[in-house]
Structure formats: C-alpha cells, structure tokens
Amino acid sequence: MDYFGAPFQDFLQPSSNIIRVENAVIEEVNVETCETGYILISYTVPLPNSGNQNEQIRLNVSRYTIIISQYGAPLSLCNLEVGMRVNAEFSAAVTSSIPPQSSAYSIIVIRDESNTMVTTDRVVSNDAVNGVLTTGNPFDLSEQISFIISDDTIIIGRNGNRIPLGQVKPGQMVIVEHADFQTMSIPPQSPAYRVKVI
User: Fold this and answer.
1) In the chain, what are the domain boundaries?
2) Local confidence band at 16 (pLDDT 50, 70, 90 cut-offs)
3) Which comes out higher in pLDDT, residue 2 or 127?
4) What's domain 10-110's superfamily in CATH?
C-alpha cells in the first residue's frame, strides 16, 4: 500500500480482515499511557452513485500498535494531536457502537504543510549513511534535536544550490523546516522537509 502520495481522502474495503483508511483527520486523542488509549478519526467514503459520506471511528491503541511518521520515525500516542492527518490500518472487527470502535494495527502520520516548524541552530553531527542530522548544544543531549532526512528532504547549500546531506558539516548553521511533532527519545527526532545552510 502506498501511503505517501494520497491526493485525497480514500477509504479502502476490508482486505484480509484489515481496513485501511488514508488521509484521515484526528478528531480526538485520549491518552492513558503513551502506549495505550485511543484516537477518534474522521474520513470520507466515496458513495457508489456519486458524492461522499463522512465517517468516524474510534481506534483503540495498544502497545502492539505501530505509530510512525511517514518517514519511518517511531512515534507514540503522546505525539498525536487533534488535526493531524494519518493513514491507519485497523481490524475489520468493528463494534456497532456510535462511533464504532476497532483495534488499531498501524497509524502513520502524514505530512501537513500547516504543521511545519522552523529551527535555526548549529549542526552537531551528520550521519549521512542513516539520514540523521543533529543540531543544538554539542555538550548537552537535552538541548539537541535529530532531524530525519528522507529522499524528499530538500537540502540547500550556502550558494543556493541543492547539495547532498554529506556536504553539511558539523559547526555550520542551518535553518530546518520540520514537522511540529517529535519523538520522546533523547535527543528527540523530527522529520525534516527542508534544510538550508546559512
């Protein structure tokens, strides 16, 4: 299943006891622990004749639920917020309650341009092999952030041309446009959309 290029909200029929929803919106987040709780999502179902129908479902999250960014960075229920867009896979065994409930297998947070932050800081380290650029205070992990660099990340050098990640050096100042969420790791991680060396 290609989660990364969904141009519109789409609902796919159950397959192998799994239902897949793309480009859904989180309407509510209830956290018991960062591993357990639920989210309420809304999505659009195309009708057979014409038009669409809005649906909602409560997805129960357990420690077995996979929660990641579209770039593969691990997240937890604590990272999810109302308004985020997600692709989700959940059990076809759905309750008849209102709203219906199901067990979530995977939740993938997809990029939303309106939820972009900008960080300007000095590069601490650059792991070009694994696609991780870390900025912040080189002497304090709690004051650092690691940016996940994907094939979609645009990296611009001082001359204004695109450069590979390997050309970004520790000590250089960078402006990073990135997601407004991050993992709970130390240092935290966040997907980077654009990196500019200044």
Assistant:
1) 10-110, 115-197
2) low
3) 127
4) Nucleic acid-binding proteins (2.40.50.140)
